[in-house]
Amino acid sequence: MLRIKTVSRCWHQARTYRVLAIETSCDDACVTLLDRFDPAQPPRVVEESKQTLDSAQAGGVIPTDAAVHNRTQVAVLTSELLAKHGWTGLDRPDLVCATRGPGMVGSLVGGYQLAQGLSIAWSVPLVGVHHMLGHLLTPRLASNGQEPQFPFLSLMASGGHTMCVLSRSLVDHEILVDTIDIAAGDALDKCGRELGFRGNMIGKELAAFLEQHSHEWGQPVDFDIKEPLLNVPGRKNMLAYSFGSFISQVRTNMSKYYPDGTLTDAQKARAGYRLAQTVFQHMVTKIKLAMRLKNIQVDSFVCSGGVAANTMLRTMLRAELPEIKHFYFPEPRLCTDNATMIGWAGIELYESGVRTPIGKSVVRKWPLCELDEYKV
């Protein structure tokens, strides 16, 4: 049986302080002000601000467009929030936290270089935060870092990442299952487009459409979707996700059953439900496999990231993981990319003694299991 030692929380900083948090890893320019008014209580979220790139007509996020968007928007948002709340001059923030990676380099640079500049100008510490660590720690914000206690399991599912993680401490994380191609959110966006959905956040629109047409769930429809990476001769117990195959399966179904590319709302709801159900079942199947093969016994489970806001996924996790006693789902606004999660993760790191050298640059790839720079 896997035995894990729980790491107790150690406060490095006791005084009250103010935090500026910045997130620009993809197509969102996000800024949050947090007030650490009492170390014994959760920080107060003073205000959040967010501007998302409109990529509907482009059919997806174009990195150069996202980079320009973030560079132009994040400074404006930061300036507006600081001025609005009087966090200027002697009342400036005491700590700057910003996403350093992983993500699209052009997007990351817009926010992180601003954070570096403000850290220098104000002579205050900088904490460069791992984007996925922000998602993973989000549920701990409400309890001031008390719940969930380490160790715990996480499913982090978004447009850029999908992985199952075992977290033993703030800086010790083991990736149990990762995707071998694309993330679940990316696949749902592209599959939704094949089904006829249009917009800036297609996966979210698909989920909302399915909720509105829940009476069609499970009804017959010409649409064949199979769960990938199941056991077959020559391949057994593969701890990996594959979401790219769902796109090809949807395209095959559209060509076979709906060659004109048109579905009625009923057909769209039934096909969309079958798609979402199989995608989420794929996630759960591999989580259960990892728990069995590695004999993992934990009480708490976190589901975070943009896809985590989906109620169908949350219901399935609760139903299929009865051994888990406590589930933690961030409120919807904290599931998608946001600066509040970066601020909270930065606070946890800062209070454990972490400071990021001002010369550190952004990183496109940064495995969550490689956080040695946070070990102090």
TrEMBL record:
Keywords: Acyltransferase, Metal-binding, Mitochondrion, Transferase, tRNA processing
Top-level division of the source organism's lineage: Eukaryota
EC number: 2.3.1.234
Gene Ontology BP terms: mitochondrial tRNA threonylcarbamoyladenosine modification
Signal peptide extent: none
Subcellular location: Mitochondrion
Example of a GO MF term: tRNA N(6)-L-threonylcarbamoyladenine synthase activity
Keyword Metal-binding among record annotations: yes
Cofactor (UniProt): a divalent metal cation
Pfam families: TsaD
Entry keyword Electron transport: no
InterPro entries in alphabetical order: ATPase_NBD (IPR043129), Gcp-like_dom (IPR000905), KAE1/TsaD (IPR017861), TsaD (IPR022450)
Domain Gcp-like as annotated: residue spans: 54-344
Reaction equation(s) it catalyzes: L-threonylcarbamoyladenylate + adenosine(37) in tRNA = N(6)-L-threonylcarbamoyladenosine(37) in tRNA + AMP + H(+)
Subunit-level organization: Homodimer.
Family per record: Belongs to the KAE1 / TsaD family.
Function as written in the Swiss-Prot or TrEMBL entry: Required for the formation of a threonylcarbamoyl group on adenosine at position 37 (t(6)A37) in mitochondrial tRNAs that read codons beginning with adenine. Probably involved in the transfer of the threonylcarbamoyl moiety of threonylcarbamoyl-AMP (TC-AMP) to the N6 group of A37. Involved in mitochondrial genome maintenance.
HAMAP family for the chain: TsaD
PANTHER family named in the record: TRNA N6-ADENOSINE THREONYLCARBAMOYLTRANSFERASE, TRNA N6-ADENOSINE THREONYLCARBAMOYLTRANSFERASE, MITOCHONDRIAL
NCBIfam families referenced in this protein's UniProt entry, alphabetically: gcp_kae1
Protein name: N(6)-L-threonylcarbamoyladenine synthase
Species annotation: Ogataea parapolymorpha (strain ATCC 26012 / BCRC 20466 / JCM 22074 / NRRL Y-7560 / DL-1)
